Amino acid sequence: MDYRYGELPLELLQSLLTYEELLKLFLDLVSRLGGDVEQAMQWMKELQRRGIIGPNIDLEAFRAALEKQGIVGRDGDGNLTLLGPGERRIRRNALEEIFSSLQKAGPGLHSIPRAGTGAETLPETRPYEFGDDVARLDGMRTVANAARRDPDELALVADDFEVFDVEHQSACATAIAIDISHSMILYGEDRFTPAKKVALALTELILQKYPKDTIDIVLFGDEAKPVPLESLSQAQVGPFHTNTKAGLGVARQLLMRRRSRNRQIFMITDGKPSCIHEGGRLYKNPFGLDLKIVNRTLEEAEKLRRDGIQLTTFMIATDPALVDFVDTLTKVARGRAYYASPTDLASFVFRDYIRNRKKLFR
Fold first, then answer.
1. Helices H / strands E in the chain, number of each
2. Looking at the predicted structure, is the pLDDT value of residue 221 above 90?
3. Which domains does the chain have, with CATH numbers?
4. What are the residue ranges of helices labelled H in the chain?
5. Is residue 39 pLDDT above 50, yes or no?
């Protein structure tokens, strides 16, 4: 028997809502635990033991539903592992959560002040050129041109035709460089989870709304490495120092391979650069700002400026020495910097990407 939505039995509605809530909780745990599905399921059982999840919830049935829907699967050893649909659902949940906390504002389009092919029709017109879409023909101006040229004949010639112009839509290549050094979880404050959630949400936004754009993710601690989008939810903080130079360097190399002329790096960090690679080894100094490390990092910022890559730094700290360093880094790269707490990080990142994007590439 088929039901319309309003005719669904209350028990069925409650079970559907319960599953969605359980799924969001489960996927949030998976992300916080670095993609460990087995551990996330253990936490679900612990939350039920503590009474946070109701005793009437059948977690074994929930696990079976996850497998049936392809959200989780089994590896060669029979352990649960997150599958592609689960990764996508984590990104979608992050996007929905962040956008629900922002002021309502449409993401808009990536516009640059240059005419070309695109979807938005402008009020301005121009002479018709071979290959223009005739659907954009401005009939009134075309006839007026013919009348001015020969008011008696009113015979149209090629030079009379005018078409409405369109706004050129630009493509943008973005790299997000995320600090995974130990300081991101020190002092009882988890700064890494909000940073990862922002990256997950921005990735999903670009995949959904801006298909011509590209996004790369770079994690940097002692070293820097790119990670596939489908592995982002598994990222974790480690016992690392902060190799900001390597993070910027790897992000720059990734962007230079992209065909877009519009390239930008979003760097999210809470600490000073404390290490670099030199002479085949890791040179590190966690105490204060080491001039050798700082200068090598600033050299990388200079390369970004020369290559035309926009650097935007989101600093989750307010230490005066770190603020001075970020100010210097920003001046060298001719970029921008924001000082945000973990709770308002998403607002800064998304507003910068969506609202100010026109300003980036003028």
1. 11, 12
2. yes
3. 5-82 (no CATH), 111-169 (no CATH), 172-360 (3.40.50.410)
4. 10-32, 37-49, 59-68, 84-101, 139-149, 192-209, 244-256, 291-306, 320-333, 345-354, 357-360
5. yes
